[in-house]
Amino acid sequence: xxxxxxxxxxxxxxxxxxxxxxxxxxxxxxxxxxxxxxxxxxxxxxxxxxxxxxxxxxxxxxxxxxxxxxxxxxxxxxxxxxxxxxxxxxxxxxxxxxxxxxxxxxxxxxxxxxxxxxxxxxxxxxxxxxxxxxxxxxxxxxxxxxxxxxxxxxxxxxxxxxxxxxxxxxxxxxxxxxxxxxxxxxxxxxxxxxxxxxxxxxxxxxxxxxxxxxxxxxxxxxxxxxxxxxxxxxxxxxxxxxxxxxxxxxxxxxxxxxxxxxxxxxxxxxxxxxxxxxxxxxxxxxxxxxxxxxxxxxxxxxxxxxxxxxxxxxxxxxxxxxxxxxxxxxxxxxxxxxxxxxxxxxxxxxxxxxxxxxxxxxxxxxxxxxxxxxxxxxxxxxxxxxxxxxxxxxxxxxxxxxxxxxxxxxx
Amino acid sequence: xxxxxxxxxxxxxxxxxxxxxxxxxxxxxxxxxxxxxxxxxxxxxxxxxxxxxxxxxxxxxxxxxxxxxxxxxxxxxxxxxxxxxxxxxxxxxxxxxxxxxxxxxxxxxxxxxxxxxxxxxxxxxxxxxxxxxxxxxxxxxxxxxxxxxxxxxxxxxxxxxxxxxxxxxxxxxxxxxxxxxxxxxxxxxxxxxxxxxxxxxxxxxxxxxxxxxxxxxxxxxxxxxxxxxxxxxxxxxxxxxxxxxxxxxxxxxxxxxxxxxxxxxxxxxxxxxxxxxxxxxxxxxxxxxxxxxxxxxxxxxxxxxxxxxxxxxxxxxxxxxxxxxxxxxxxxxxxxxxxxxxxxxxxxxxxxxxxxxxxxxxxxxxxxxxxxxxxxxxxxxxxxxxxxxxxxxxxxxxxxxxxxxxxxxxxxxxxxxxxxxxxxxxxxxxxxxxxxxxxxxxxxxxxxxxxxxxxxxxxxxxxxxxxxxxxxxxxxxxxxxxxxxxxxxxxxxxxxxxxxxxxxxxxxxxxxxxxxxxxxxxxxxxxxxxxxxxxxxxxxxxxxxxxxxxxxxxxxxxxxxxxxxxxxxxxxxxxxxxxxxxxxxxxxxxxxxxxxxxxxxxxxxxxxxxxxxxxxxxxxxxxxxxxxxxxxxxxxxxxxxxxxxxxxxxxxxxxxxxxxxxxxxxxxxxxxxxxxxxxxxxxxxxxxxxxxxxxxxxxxxxxxxxxxxxxxxxxxxxxxxxxxxxxxxxxxxxxxxxxxxxxxxxxxxxxxxxxxxxxxxxxxxxxxxxxxxxxxxxxxxxxxxxxxxxxxxxxxxxxxxxxxxxxxxxxxxxxxxxxxxxxxxxxxxxxxxxxxxxxxxxxxxxxxxxxxxxxxxxxxxxxxxxxxxxxxxxxxxxxxxxxxxxxxxxxxxxxxxxxxxxxxxxxxxxxxxxxxxxxxxxxxxxxxxxxxxxxxxxxxxxxxxxxxxxxxxxxxxxxxxxxxxxxxxxxxxxxxxxxxxxxxxxxxxxxxxxxxxxxxxxxxxxxxxxxxxxxxxxxxxxxxxxxxxxxxxxxxxxxxxxxxxxxxxxxxxxxxxxxxxxxxxxxxx
Lengths: 411, 1069
Description:
The complex is a heterodimer of chains A (411) and B (1069). Chain A is mostly helical and 411 residues long. Chain A folds into 4 domains: 2-129, Cytochrome c-like domain (Cytochrome Bc1 Complex, Chain D, domain 2, Orthogonal Bundle); 137-202; 207-238; 254-408, no CATH class. Chain A has 19 helices and 1 strand. Chain A is 56% helix and 0% strand. Chain B is of the alpha/beta class and 1069 residues long. In chain B, the strands form 14 sheets. Chain B has a 7-stranded mixed beta sheet, with helices on both faces. A 7-stranded mixed beta sheet of chain B has the order 29-21-26-23-25-24-30. Chain B has a 4-stranded parallel beta sheet with strand order 12-11-10-13. In chain B, helix 4 runs parallel beside helix 26, helix 6 crosses helix 17 (505-517) and helix 12 packs across helix 19 (566-576). The longest helix of chain B is centred in the N-terminal third of the chain and has 19 residues, at 49-67. Chain B is globular. Classes of the chains: A mainly alpha (411), B alpha/beta (1069). Chains A and B meet through helix 14, strand 1, helix 16 and helix 19 of A and helix 3, strand 1 and helix 31 of B.
């Protein structure tokens, strides 16, 4: 509902405002380039500098930018991007209206050259002209999508199995019918010897089959095998919680935040490059953005309540390493140069975060055996690398520098 | 055919053919098995043992099934994360530890806002980055759940508003009536607090501040007041002294400023390639103190002779320097005294003479000696004096008199507990009720506080703002590192409240610093910047102290000056001391670990053994070997000792007896700090037990810590276990354990005292390190260098060692440690630091008696005789005054570790960095490793100490658990543990280097024991890195003083010790 409202509002701004401003003169307006190289250059700049607050098609902290060049002359836009505060305080009516609406001032971007701003505009124009590829997912709907997809797959499988079973039953019935028809035919039509009669009249004896040694043996074997497999699996699985996806007090969607909005993991998980903990973001980090975006919703209210009551939000821990194992995020992310996805899986697609990796010691060791040390440009490893290269042609693995030793993780 | 007609019967029942017997006759066991459960409890009807086993079988299955479902764990982030706090990253805050006059500048390590470790602040010019056991343990006192949770009135909980209102109104009433308001305190180091008390006094004009110290130095203060016009202690520069003569002053232990003196002293004891000179240390004392244990020449004297010994030394010096002599004193034969005088005269201006006797006459003589030697201005600094003892015994005594007579209107005890720790404690206890208002600010309702009308608990120093000036011109700040745990309030804030001020103490400190300290410097022009910088550094030293006047005094007061009357002194000495005394004498001392007993409820301190007697948890009466024999107290079976009844000063107490070698024959000694009222001081003190030796102190002008008459000791016939952690006292002839020599020999041969064991082989004798059974690199070659295929690491430590036997390849780091036996004074700071850094459990008195203590590092103390004693009798005689060596002992991280090969589950293994790693979660507790360890440093964890209510040592409740280091596993029962060489710190140091993309440097990784050590006896670092201190040291010392303990068994430790060198003449050695 609220999304619709935002869209309406954006549309209003987009279409109504230019009507008022159309009368202004357009003198020697710079052209927005359409060159592919310029567009990609603009894309970079946009992502680096603008994307935190602006989207082309949606309103974020700042207005949506599609068709921005139609709202005001390009030179005005350039000037406004460079000196928003000046423009607003100078009493420019459009700028003032923007300020009134958004209650926020964009910081100065006077470090941009006009060409750079034009390249950004070129990117925006290019994006504007692209067809809507994906709609904004909202919490709930996205997850639903995922579930539907997986249920389609399983439904299909089920249908095939059920179809096969039905087919088999039909075949069975047909066969039985055939047999009975043939028996009847033989009885009617043929003279039969005693032996043949006996054969024909013999009854299928379930009891004797059940009592046969072979049957009991097979059943016992299957039973023992299944139980043993179950026990072994159960024991191996103690403490292993792969796929653990508990319900959280606030159904925060990583798919929306990290996936769709491409917010960098490190923006919220501030400790990941400097500490052993990646850190679950504190409420004030949520409020950095949610001060201006989607300020009210039942879920957002939970954050407000937490802040008002001075009671931190109790998230359910997804990744539970035992106390005896020491793991340090900064070692792996900053020093090792690993991506979060390496261990946490495709977080960008997870509506509800789940434990992607096994997190068993075997899993750690496997990775330490297979992974090359990120030694390039890190003087710490110089000596080790030199020694390693002196007697091996293989790349230096974590294992080679003591990565399998007990007291690297247990102390 | 039945031949025998007899009937055999099992019992009367069978004979009578009792129906109930017939019924069960064919059953092997009766229905009810005598044993009902595994714990021998057969009082109740219930399930049988078989049921128990069945149940157990079921419950094991149930538990393993239940274990499949992991419990839901919560992750609770900050609501509003403080910018400076990142979970997982420690923050460090400079602060100041001050307990009465005891001072240490510290750096507090906090994790997620809770202090977990206290380290020394290397910026401090006083403590120089060192600590002692009490400083290290103080962080555990913060989390003591038995502290007062808030203000109380008459023992019942109250609230601050009520208490403040009542106290303020009573104070003004008492002040208007002109009655005395007494603030009773220990030494106050904080100038701002003194300023505050001045302000308080100007509002309540009848205020008097009475200061006393439980270990009084009142006589020294008085002597300096008379002779120099300042009632202060001089700053002793032990680092500048060539000759140190101490008469009963335990300057390395409990005298005052132990950390400072340890640091200074050890500077003069360190020797090396470029410094073949060390101080000579004479100690004359009745008991074996920590300083005596470190002395080159130690002579046991009677306490009743102290004055005579000092007077004789005075005369010897005076004769040579031409000063006035003390005439007519009795002559005592004191060994080494002439030598001491000779050495003193040879090092004029570079010597120190001190006395721990609380007698003004003796202290005046000692001052005289130092003056004649020209030590003032050189090794003794009165221009920048120390303020670490300010207590005045006479003023305290007169206060007690007034209190008894009901002349005191109000009394405020500022963190002082005189009922317990003052000789007139009983009188004070009786007198408190006579005051109209009695307030205490003690952290719990202890002996004094429980008698006061109000207790307004002061916050712990880690929760408080404060400042300190332990020495004139050397200031430091204390800042809170955690918000208040209980509803406590700083004494200073309370005082402000009661004087009707709205200020906070922080603003008082700041304004004092702005007015008085800020103008003494010119570096910063902005006070805020100055404040921030000082707060960051923790310390601020006034560079140009000219014109600077400290609030603690220290200026010459001409009125106080009194010319020293040597004739008068001689009569005083003659009166109070005698050359021969056949009676027993009693010395009341304070232990180097426990100190005054203010932290007696700290289980960490209780479990740290006394460096000399190795006894923890409780005090004892120490007697000499001959006295023990004479009194029938000598019978000792391991930790089971005799109990004696001691009476002196009209007080009787029963205590276990420890036979103390080196103690003067007719002297008995008891330590203070024990015998607290367990109900008031806490459960830990109750467990420690012991008796309160403060009751034995007497008062005559000053507090006397010796009793030379009326002392009796007798066996009670009973015996008792004491918690002693070392019950053998020699090295049992193993010459590689302690290697020592004298300075003379060292000068001519740096390898003097070294013992190099050699092993006989088929090809002749060889160093143990060259032959080996081990094939560590699994290449099939052990010791033949021609066939060696192992790669060499250029410049590595193994290359320096050049041993022929197979070696581990340490490509990057090779962690190693060097411990200088010459620097180690045995203070035991490392033991406490190690415990707190590594979450080592505290096990309690009974478990120590059961030999289950968990110390990862221990200080072995060995006695030796100067003469080569052979027979038992000679050994016994030698024990009258043995030499002492302290040897810190922890896992030696052997390269050929015997523990590693016997572990059936590979729970202890060798790392590629030279560490012997212990993997707790793999350990199944066979204890083979401990049995096979030649150093006996492995500790078996018998209980879940942290979750067991039988081990109530702060750590089994949620509050106490806050002190645990989150980077170190809290071990469960059933596993072996031992020193890891602080592998968590090594890993953190490596990570720091990696993150900055540089090789690791010296100092990135340090170990807790080395960082706590006040004497820098422990050097730790990467032996493979040519730039590290330990490598540079070892490159020299491996050819000279460095040795491995038990070298002959070729386990090749990565911990080296350096020979103990004593500065003794050949004829005395």
